[in-house]
Amino acid sequence: MSPAVLFIGGMDSSGGAGLMRDCATAQALGATARSAVTAVTAQSDRAVSALHPVPEDIVAAQIAAAADTGADPVAAIKVGMLGSAGITRAVARTLARHLPDVPLVLDPVLCASSGRALIDAEGIAAMLPLLVPRATLLTPNLPELRALCAPLGLPGETGEAEICAALLDLGCGAVLVKGGHAPQGPTSEDRLYQRGYDLHRLSSARYPVALRGTGCQLASAVAVHLAGGRALPAAVAKAKEMLDQRFRAAATRGDGDPCAPQVA
Ligand code: PLP
């Protein structure tokens, strides 16, 4: 039996990120992928040229059908690009009805590496009360964490630990802050904040290559490992191993995605 994971997010026509990256990650780890598309994007590695949100009732119908499919129950959920407040509300409502207790990894996707916003301010404001409390793990990168300050009612210069405490106060199980956007150095550090536990630091080598869809891949891999029954810190560590292998392989070959930033 392979665990089933439901991926909720956007289609990226370049194949670099979004649901295609999620499904490839699940397949590589031996999990079954189910999907609900929130938005169709036309994008290359250089630009997002079009963005078409899927109607809210169709997003809800996909989630309901995915929850009601196949022999294996959905054992984890990963939520990526939501696109709008309406879709965020539809996702929260439908998950509460069909998959209320399933572990959920929420990647608060705000924009593509090429720059275009993938959700508006109203959508971010809806995500905080509706999906953050439902999340087992939230996986912001540093700019995403900073962008959550205003909707959380915190000053822009609030420290990382305080922002994470506010997110944990909303009810999410843990916050993994991805440090790839920090100033360059030989290593990159992610930090896992969990209420009642010491801060857990995960350091990895930084490679001189640019890759797309790394945030999607990390969150998806964590969801797959949670579906397989691993505890959260072990699921995060295994997911980071997978990313490290992808970076190392790309650095060895000397390739990468030309327009993605030099970060994880
Ligand atoms: N496009 C879609 C549909 C995504 O879901 C994401 C991230 O989750 C991105 C783009 C951003 O990926 P990248 O940072 O590689 O551009």
Architecture overview:
By secondary structure, the protein is an alpha/beta fold. The protein has a single domain, classed as Ribokinase (UDP-N-acetylmuramoyl-L-alanine:D-glutamate ligase, 3-Layer(aba) Sandwich). It has helices at residues 18-28, 56-67, 85-98, 121-130, 142-147, 149-152, 160-170, 214-227, 232-253, and strands spanning 4-12, 32-43, 48-53, 74-79, 104-106, 137-138, 174-177, 187-194, 200-205. A 6-stranded mixed beta sheet has the order 3-2-1-4-5-6. A hairpin with a 5-residue loop joins strand 8 (187-194) and strand 9. It is globular. The chain starts with a strand and ends in an 11-residue tail after the last helix. Bound molecules: pyridoxal-5'-phosphate (PLP). Pyridoxal-5'-phosphate binds at residues 9-10, 12, 16-18, 41, 80-81, 107, 109, 112-113, 212-213, 215-216, 260.
Assembly context of the chains: single chain
Number of domains: 1
Individual helix count: 9
Mean pLDDT: 93
**What would you give as the CATH superfamily?**
Ribokinase
Rg over C-alpha atoms, rounded to the nearest angstrom: 17 Å
Fraction of residues in β-strands: 15-25%
What is the overall shape?
globular
CATH topology type? UDP-N-acetylmuramoyl-L-alanine:D-glutamate ligase
CATH C-level class = Alpha Beta
With strands numbered from the N-terminus, the spatial order across the biggest sheet is 3-2-1-4-5-6
Poorly predicted runs of 5 or more residues: 258-264
Q: What would CATH call the architecture?
A: 3-Layer(aba) Sandwich
Summarize the biggest pleated sheet: 6 strands, mixed
Distinct compounds present: pyridoxal-5'-phosphate
Number of DSSP-assigned strands: 9
> What percentage of residues falls in helices of 4 or more residues?
25-40%
Structural class label: alpha/beta
Spatial separation of the terminal alpha carbons = 32 Å
Secondary-structure element order, as H and E?
Answer: EHEEHEHEHEHHHEEEHH
